[in-house]
Each structure stands twice: as structure tokens, then as C-alpha cells.
Amino acid sequence: MKINSIKLITVILITLLLSSCVDDNFEVPTPSGNEENSELSIILGNIASEADWNLVTIADLKARFNSGDAPLLINENDVVKGYVVSSDRNGNFFQEIYIQDAAENPTTGIKVVLNLRNNYTKYNVGREVYIYLNGLYLGETNSRDGIITIGGKIDAADNNEVDVISENQLKDHIFRSAVTETIVPKTISVGEINDNAVGTFVRIENAFFPPALDGEPIVDPNEDFDTQRTLSSCSGAGFSNFILETSSFANFSSVKMQSQTGGFIDAVVTKDFRGDNFVLVINDIEDIKFEDTLCQPLTPFYSQDFESFGSTSDVEAAGWTNVNVNGGSTTFTLRNFGGNQFMQASAFRTGENPLEMWFVSPAINLDSNTDEELSFGTKTGFNNGAALSVLISTDFTGDVTTATWQTLNATLANGPSSGFQFDFTESGAIDLSSFSGDVYIAFKYLGGDGDVTTTFQIDNLTIVGN
């Protein structure tokens, strides 16, 4: 959606003069003839048999580029595979597609810019595509916007930006397989929208338009290009806001918003023009399903921010178990920085390898609540590997080695390798509704001096419910 206004106006005028309306009887396209299939077969054969041909992941590809750098020319026989998740059929995307690394539960995605109108007729949602990268560029269409992009050349107007893959380049670089998968939106919380999510198709549940937008069109009629609308989602004990960005050229731009009901929204994660904010972009107005009663925040019934403690021993006296299972002396410690207190673990300069330490909550009873959700924050410093995991037990009696533990699916901090990250990373809402009675939440650190020594900080443990 990030476009140069002059370029856009020129293309729109040409479109009006030379093209007819979009065919409403669209059918999923198949690869055109044997030539495209043969080319893809050759590429896949080279990957299987030639040492200098590589199938790379989207994550590995994105890791090669740092926001703000000059475009990177790829001069190796690398190929990346992905599944198309965006569509320009309704005018909300322009000269771009987004692909993610799996049809379901993707880990990341990437933007591809191409000089092709109505590209949904060739690269339909769910289509498996292979991109031969040799001769293409990795960069940003707007320098420092943080949206890592595959392009065909350096922009003539700005050497720090990439431009579209030309129609002539397309036939040599982007190949469709015969596979079209059903794209399953990945349900995430607003707090889990991050750089890894850019380019993926996600679902935000318990979402709604605020009353101030009731009756307003989804696109501001005074805007020439994009309109950003702030929506809300119930999140634990409160609300989280997120931005829906819609093009004035979308054929649903005049649809009125309503705030009486809520539900879910399925959309592609990207960023705004300057890269200041994450935004969601829908393919179709039908991607907004607000047909349910408005959600209500859950009520906190357990919280711990460690602010009331004066020392690590005070934390332990309050019922927290803090143990080193290797017999060493290193355990989680209470720390303070910038007026904020948290628990910290690190193997750095401990002289212990391996180092396994556990920090376990007191018993937390769930019987008086329903729909329980756990959340907390983590921060890392001098990250050189994953060391922390989060677990739950219903039979812990004081010995972590004899209890039954189940790993919880939480978003944990990851970076940087030098210094500390600025903000805590939200874990996301972790569903505890299948548990009952007393539960124990454990943070397990597994590392070793001279091995994985990442510093982890933990704060703001909260459990909410109805």
C-alpha cells in the first residue's frame, strides 16, 4: 500500500484508458501451459542435485537485510518458497503480493513488489510460489520503513530503495506450482503483532470499532490514498488498540463502520508508509466479521509485579520456589532498573555449566474463575540463545524434579545480542481454561557459562478470568 502518489495517478489514468472492469467470475488460475511447469521442475531439480542451488527460508532471507541499508543484490542461486496471502482483486493492494512461509501457522512473511495489475489472477491467495532470487534485490520500497521486500531493481529516484520486478523479469523469477492451499489465518493477540508477523495473514479476535467511528465510512473521503482507523480488542483485563489501513482505491472504501457488535478480523500484517506503526490490511470487506456481542475485559484475580519486595529472600518468603537443580548457588535474583523491579536469570560468569534453575510461583487456585488467561513480560540482554521456558503443574509439592510439568506456548523475548532490549515483550494471552484447582507457574532457565548465557528478565505476571 505504500506508493508514490505520482506513480499511482499515472497508473490509474492508464488503467482507465486501457482496461476494462475486473471480471467478477474469477476462477483459480492454473499454471499456463507446460513451459512454466517445466521451468519450475528444472529449478527444483537443480536444488536437489546442484551444490550451488539452495532453497532458503523467508526468515533466513529477511535476516540478510537491515532496515535502512542500501538494497542488496542477490547473486547466488537461492530460491525462496511461499504462499500468497494478499489479493489486489478489491483494490486494497497495489503492485505487490505478500507471501508467508506456510499455509497454516506461519512464522514470517515477506513483501514482493511487481509490475503487474490484477495480479490476483496469476498469484491467487493460497498459491504456492517459488522465487528464483539470483539477480533480484532485497531492500525496502521506502527506506527505513521496516518492510523487507523483494524487488527487481534499484529505484531510479532513490538508490536506497527497491523498485518493482518488471513483467519481463517475472517469467524468469516467479514460478507458480500447481498447488493452491487454503490459508488458515493465524490467531494472535494485538501484543503479538511484531516484525516476524509482517507479511503473514492473521486473525485478531474480540475486535470492534469504537463508538466514535460508528456510521463513518471505512475510508475517510477526504483522504487521497490510505486511511488509518484505530480498532480495539479485548485483551486480558483491558483493551489493546491496533490500526486498520485501507486504500481509497478499495472497492469497499465507502462501507460504513458500526460499533454495536464485534468479532474477528482477518488481515495481512504490514507497516504504514514511514514504518512507524504496524497496520492490518484486509483483502476483502468480508474479512471483517463483526457479528457477536461486544467483548468485555476479563478480571484480574492474580498479579505479581515484584515491586513490594526488598530482596530475593523476600520473594522466596512469599511462597516462590527458587532453586538450582544442579546443586550450584546461582538462582533467579530480584533486580531493579529505572525504578522497575523484576526477576532476572543469567548464566554469564557463573562458572556453572550446565546451569538449570527454576522459579516457581506459589499455588494459584483457578476454581473460582472461568476462561482464565496468563500473561507476563520478558526482556533479554546479550542474547546468544534460547534459555527460558514457561511451564505449569498441578502436582508440584516443592521438588521440581518430581512434579509433572506441561510447557506453555508463550511469546518470549528474543534479542539483542549486544545490550538489552528497551521494552518488555508481552507473552500474549495464554489459555489456562483447561486447568482447575491449584496450579503452579514455573520459569525454567537452562544454559551454561561458556555456552548459552542470555540474560532473561521476568515481570508483570497476571492471571485474568470471568
TrEMBL record:
Specify the DUF5689 domain's residue ranges. 54-288
The record, for Pfam families, names: DUF5017 (PF16409), DUF5689 (PF18942)
Cite the entry's keywords alphabetically. Lipoprotein, Signal
Cite the InterPro entries for this sequence.
DUF5017, DUF5689
Gene3D superfamilies to which the protein is assigned, alphabetical:
2.60.120.200
- Give start-end of the signal peptide: 1-23
Indicate whether tRNA-binding appears among the record's keywords. Answer: no
Positions of the DUF5017 domain: 373-454
**Annotated NCBIfam families:** choice_anch_J (NF038128)
What's the protein name?
Answer: Probable lipoprotein
Q: What is the organism field in this record?
A: Tenacibaculum jejuense
